[in-house]
Specification:
The complex is a heterodimer. Chain A is built from 12 helices and 18 strands. In chain A, a hairpin with a 2-residue loop joins β13 and β14. In chain A, α3 runs parallel beside α4 and α9 crosses α10. Chain B has 30 helices and 22 strands. Helices cover 39% and strands 12% of the residues of chain B. Classes of the chains: A alpha+beta, B alpha/beta.
Chain lengths: 418, 821
């Protein structure tokens, strides 16, 4: 008799997970409690244990698929058993399971009034702490979130009158259109994360620039390597593939190690600073934004960093990036420089607390003694740093950004180990 | 307790023997000479014709019920048909000497009585009167159907009227629009008041106390005629029948009421004694009287003029009724008749007569009242066989047409279901049911209590807002008194009765001062007969008078269950609006007196369709709502809390108005405005809610809106829903026990009407599902302000810094329910 392995409820607010990797495959024998797959929730990566014992007849999802919790993910049974009918009946099973969910006592309660208010005002209820009986989210909890968003608003916990709510509603209506529900797959994850990031942190962006002459001249040298006959055995080829972006990333990683408060993540309101740098970098793919992570980037040489970046970017574009390559970043960089962008305000990727946006290189007029005491044009690369004001004030952010600019400027010295 | 009557120990302690007079049994002696002299040939034949009509009518119904057809007409009748085949002589004999304005009330087995009484009325009314009744009834809809029939003699209005009666009755039995009551009464409740055939009752003995009330109406309002309660021998086992007999036999009619009033209410308890109550045999099995007529002997010195009458001889019954009517009109009633008869048909068509022998039935068939009367007339040359044959032919011919029309959905459609909703209440406003001067003993302004009240503050608070001492304010009991007095001085038909109503002024002194203003027949004490108090009030009201009945404690409603649930509530709709029920039943909700004197049964009456239910909690409302009830035409159960009788008006600034005013029907009152939470109360819990609201404001900064529902049915949800839309939270509380409380109906409706606005579930706080404990322990039983606060904290809005002192968390709901407490 075939049975279904159910994806368990993996935390109070988790509605769905992405299957990162199947640890068992069709035809394998699995015991109850054995790990069947690894999934990623919006918060963490978790191992899922099988709720059934038997031969894995069918895996119902592919890696990377988004699966609602408490739904069947696989079918086990006797070897050779037919499972098609089960698949056909999946809908019915899902229905039956959703009935089971209703009985689940751990659901977060929210009053119709609070839900309506949250909906009208575009508030994500998943982050709200309920102060009603049994932790139920009641009107005052939504009002509190609202008043925090608008410090000038009404006193929290006091019922706003109907007309006042309506008034603000009209102002805020556009925000409603960004609701993540209704999206699917990666789009949904991006939407949820970005919305969550913006709703739950105090982001601001500062802009600066770095003298890119060093980057350009060093890059030229690397390009020349290719032409200077290194091409036959390809020994220098990979050097020649080092991009301006890689150089900036290298400078960034080196600077980050000196600014652990920027290279930090936050968990449950607690800030953790990291010694090592796991650098996430944004890759534009057909499916949307994917941020692969270069683990221990601070331990890599420029060449290694460049190579790893290329590898991961390619896997991301080809959709074969592994789930573990998508997690654990301590800082993220996003580069719109080759698209002619002068400055932008990147959105922090939680639980990180800052993100660097890299812009185009533009000639910039400068006046400096060291340049002969006259106004000159230098190639300048724009740098936009978004930080979470809850943890990082403007001055430390600025100090970090100017340190980064300095590192970029002196890239060759840094490469030499300076 | 009238002071004018002395109970002398020397008298009551004297030894001696109580002699009870003899009770005559079947004393009628047939004498054709005298009978012909008395009635004439035609009338004797008319008796036969009416009996034969009834027999054919019932035989037709039996055929339809058992075979699905009558002659070639096929029809399936789903409802009941309790037939009286064999009892025709009793019905026709009784009606024969009654006038159109004499009332008969009956039972579930009364088709024969309707036909007999209506035929008798037809014989006594003029053509003009008959036409006017038929043209006016149901806008002439019945008449329009039977006008199509060709009368034997052109322009014979009596024949037309007979067809009118047969068709109106049958259409009613078949539930048709042209039925006497639009088909809403059916077989067991059909009646036609214009001919004196009054409501027939499907509750055994149900007509007894209603008849007493109708007789009181006739006596008090000096109306002609007598009232007959046609009930069965088995109803002698019903408490309310004994109560009715008791109320009808009270001494006061002759000892205390004005002599000029004419004595006792003219009511005849006529027991159609067919020896069976369904299958239980009253003779020798289920009762002990052996001869039913014996029962009258125990009631009053006149033995209730009891006698056994041979109900198998119509002339014996007619004779007895004529004699008894004289007694009744002279004020010496009530009378008791044991009218012997026998039902040849079963209790209903499903009856297999397992409880009686074939031999017994055969014996009675041999004595069949119709055959015997036929033979009697034939033997004495009053009729010949040809005439009898022609009579039978005529009867069948007419009935055939009537049945054909009554089964046709084209000729006789049914009313739309929604029509029922339109006749549940009459919603009238009537200043006075008769245009004459109300009988009073002194001027309204000279009433001693009116003078005393004039010295009191109309408001419960002084100008500075301080609460005045209770003796200095117009209390709720005085506000109620003012409403009663006002209507007594304007509606001459208005009467009030109940236990301790006169002299004492009601157990809680609401009526104190009325005694001075009103003659005995407008305000009187009754025996401890709650069933008959309400039942006779029902009879009084449906006869056309305004009445206020009082049950001292709400708990005593149990004793009047049938009268409240089946009679008071039902007759307006069962008559399709022909009858009005201007009856206010005042009941007080007690406390301090334990389990049988402290219950709030609003939920129970609210559940019964056809009742208006009110529960004022302030003097302003008490007067305005009683004024409303006393100008209306609907039955109202009017609740009063004994906790509040002393209280002054604390909410309406101007206090209790001196003049007449009414509270808008169904409209809840907002007693205190607030924005954070709504507290709705019914009854005295209002004051606990106000206390809780004060604490919520002072201690927790929560602003509570307090709503006093004051009406239970009808109830306008508008203001309640508006409040909940504003606050999102509602607590509902009353002194009624929590399980099945009407508050849950309100809560359930709010959940639907304001679902999206709710910030938590509507929370109901009622009394515990226990007996009411002793006065000192009541705080553990009735909702207290702490319960309200704790329930808010546990179920709706945790209050910062609040610590609970009572158990109100939701866990107790299932826990208590599991235990049934």
């Amino acid at each position: 008799m075939s049975r279904e392995v159910i994806l368990p409820q993996l935390g109070q607010s988790v509605e769905s997970c992405i299957i990162l990797e199947w640890k068992k495959h069709e035809g394998d024998y699995i015991k109850k409690g054995e790990v069947i797959c690894e999934v990623e929730t919006d918060k963490s990566t978790l191992e899922v244990e099988s709720t059934e014992e038997g031969t894995l007849l069918k895996l119902l999802y592919a890696e990377g698929d988004l699966v609602p919790v408490l739904s069947p993910i696989a079918i086990v049974g006797e070897e050779g058993e037919m499972v098609e009918h089960l698949k056909d009946n999946l809908k019915d099973n899902l229905k039956a399971i959703s009935k089971g969910i209703e009985k689940e006592p751990k659901r977060i309660g929210i009053s119709p009034r609070a839900r309506l208010l949250a909906e009208k005002r575009g508030i994500d209820i998943t982050g709200i702490i309920g102060t009603g009986p049994g932790g139920r989210i009641i009107e005052r909890d939504v009002l509190k979130v609202l008043s925090e968003k608008e410090p000038s608003g009404k006193h929290p916990g006091r019922a706003a009158t109907e007309s006042k709510v309506e008034e603000v509603l009209i102002e805020e209506k556009p925000s409603v259109s960004v609701e993540p529900s209704g999206l699917s797959g990666i789009r949904r994850v991006i939407a949820e994360r970005m919305l969550h990031s913006l709703r739950n942190s105090a982001q601001y962006t500062i802009h600066g620039y770095a003298d890119a002459s060093g980057l350009i001249s060093y890059r030229k040298k690397l390009k020349l390597l290719e032409k200077s006959g290194g091409g036959s055995d390809g020994k220098w080829k990979s050097f020649s593939q080092i991009s301006i972006g890689d150089l900036v990333d290298f400078a960034l990683v080196r600077t980050l190690t000196d600014f652990p408060e920027i290279n930090s993540t936050v968990d449950n309101g607690k800030l953790t600073s990291h010694r090592n740098v796991n650098l996430g970098f944004a890759v534009d793919t057909k499916r949307g934004l994917i941020v692969p992570v270069i683990k221990d980037a601070d331990k890599l040489s420029l060449l290694e960093l460049s190579r790893r970046t290329r590898e991961l970017a390619l896997s991301a574009r080809e959709g074969r990036v592994k789930p573990e390559e998508l997690t654990g970043a301590t800082f993220t960089v996003t580069n719109l420089g080759n698209m002619g962008i002068d400055f932008f305000t990147p959105v922090i990727n939680p639980p990180q607390v800052a993100i660097l946006g890299v812009n185009s290189i533009r000639p910039r007029a400068v006046y400096a003694e060291e340049l002969g005491g006259e106004v000159k044009f230098i190639p300048a690369i724009g740098l936009s740093l978004t930080a979470d004001h809850r943890f990082i004030d403007g001055a430390p952010a600025a100090r970090f950004l100017s340190a980064l600019a300095e590192t970029v400027k002196r890239i060759e010295i840094i490469l030499a180990g300076g | 307790m009238p002071k004018s009557l002395l109970i002398d120990p020397n008298d009551v302690r004297k030894s001696g023997t109580l002699k009870i007079d003899s009770i005559p049994l079947n004393s009628y002696k047939p004498d054709i000479e005298r009978e012909l002299e008395r009635y004439g040939k035609e009338k004797l034949k008319r008796i036969l014709e009416t009996m034969m009509t009834i027999r054919e009518f019932e035989t037709m119904l039996n055929s339809i019920k058992t075979m699905g057809s009558y002659k070639d007409i096929e029809y399936r009748h789903l409802g009941p048909a309790h037939l009286s085949i064999g009892q025709e002589a009793a019905a026709v004999g009784e009606a024969f000497n009654l006038d159109a304005n004499d009332f008969i009330f009956g039972s579930h087995r009364s088709h024969g009585e309707i036909i007999a009484k209506c035929y008798s009325a037809i014989d006594k009314l003029s053509d003009k009167a008959l036409l006017s009744i038929m043209e006016g009834y149901l806008d002439g809809e019945i008449l329009k159907v039977v006008e199509r029939y060709k009368p034997a003699k052109k322009g014979n209005i009596s024949e037309l009227a007979e067809a009118f009666v047969l068709y109106g009755t049958l259409a009613e039995i078949f539930g048709r629009r042209q039925g006497f009551n639009r088909g809403l009464g059916g077989s067991m409740h059909a009646f036609f008041a214009p001919f004196g055939s009054m409501p027939n009752n499907a509750i055994v003995g149900g007509s007894a106390d209603i008849s007493v009330g109708a007789a009181l109406y006739k006596r008090i309002n000096r109306k002609p005629g007598i009232v007959v309660a046609n009930i069965g021998d088995a109803s002698m086992g019903c408490g309310p029948v004994w109560e009715a007999i008791t109320v009808a036999s009270m001494d006061q009619y002759r000892t205390l009421w004005d002599k000029e009033m004419g004595g006792a209410p003219p009511v005849m308890f006529n027991f159609f004694n067919n020896f069976y109550g369904m299958g239980g045999q009253t003779y020798g099995e289920t009762m002990g009287f052996k001869i039913l007529a014996r029962v009258g002997a125990g009631v009053n010195p006149e033995n209730m003029h009891s006698e056994r009458v041979d109900g198998y001889n119509p002339l014996a019954v007619a004779d007895a009724v004529e004699r008894k009517k004289k007694i009744l009109l002279s004020g010496k009633g009530p009378v008791f008749m044991d009218t012997v008869t026998y039902r040849l048909s079963g209790h209903s068509p499903s009856d297999s007569s397992s409880y009686r022998t074939k031999e017994e039935i055969e014996l009675w068939k041999k004595n069949d009242c119709i055959e015997h009367y036929k033979s009697y007339l034939l033997e004495n040359g009053v009729v010949d066989n040809g005439e009898i044959g022609a009579l039978q032919e005529g009867i069948e011919e007419r009935l055939y047409r009537v049945v054909k029309d009554a089964v046709s959905l084209e000729v006789s459609p049914r009313v739309d279901g929604e029509f029922i909703g339109k006749v549940m209440f009459s919603n009238g406003r009537v200043e006075a049911f008769e245009d004459r001067k109300p009988e009073v003993l002194l001027d309204e302004k000279d009433n001693p209590r009116v003078k005393a009240i004039a010295r009191k503050s109309r408001s419960g608070v002084d100008e500075k807002g301080n609460i005045l001492p209770k003796m200095k304010v117009v209390s709720m009991r005085e506000a109620l008194f003012e409403a009663m007095l006002y209507r007594f001085y304007r509606d001459p038909t208005m009467v009030a009765f109940g236990e301790e109503n006169r002299d004492w002024g009601g157990a809680f002194a609401v009526y104190r001062g009325l005694t001075e203003s009103l003659p005995y027949h407008r305000l009187f004490n009754t025996s401890i007969s709650e069933g008959a108090i309400v039942g006779s009030a029902v009879g009084y009201a449906l006869s056309g008078g305004r009445v206020v009945a009082e049950l001292m404690y709400c708990d005593f409603m149990g004793r009047a269950g049938d009268e409240i649930f089946n009679q008071m509530s039902k007759w307006q709709a069962m008559s399709a609006g022909h009858l009005k029920m201007p009856l206010v039943l005042r009941v007080s909700v007690g406390n301090k007196y334990g389990a049988q004197h402290s219950q709030d049964w609003t939920s129970i009456v609210a559940h019964i369709p056809g009742l208006k239910v009110m529960f004022p909690a302030t003097p302003y409302d008490a007067k305005g709502m009683l004024n409303l009830a006393l100008i209306g035409t609907d039955p109202v159960v009017f609740f009063e809390s004994q906790r509040l009788y002393d209280i002054g008006e604390l909410f309406v600034k101007e206090g209790v108005p001196e003049g007449f005013y009414t509270v808008p029907e169904g409209e809840p009152a907002i007693r205190r405005e607030g924005g954070d939470i709504t507290i709705l109360t019914i009854g005295a819990t209002l004051y606990k809610a106000i206390e809780a609201a004060e604490i919520l404001k002072d201690r927790y900064g929560v602003s509570a809106e307090v709503i006093d529902a004051r009406f239970i049915n009808p109830l306008d949800y508008g203001p309640i829903v508006e409040s909940v839309k504003k606050t999102g939270k509602i607590v509902l509380s009353s002194d009624a026990c929590e399980r099945g409380s009407y508050l849950y109906t309100i809560a359930g409706n709010i959940s639907q009407l304001a679902f999206d606005y709710l910030d938590g579930p509507p929370v109901v706080i009622g009394s515990r599902n226990w007996i009411t404990p002793s006065a000192e322990m009541e705080e553990s039983f009735f909702p207290q302000k702490e319960w309200i606060l704790d329930a808010i904290h546990e179920r709706l809005l945790p209050l910062e810094g609040h610590s609970v002192s009572t158990v109100q968390a939701t866990d107790v709901i299932s826990e208590r329910s599991r235990k049934g407490v």
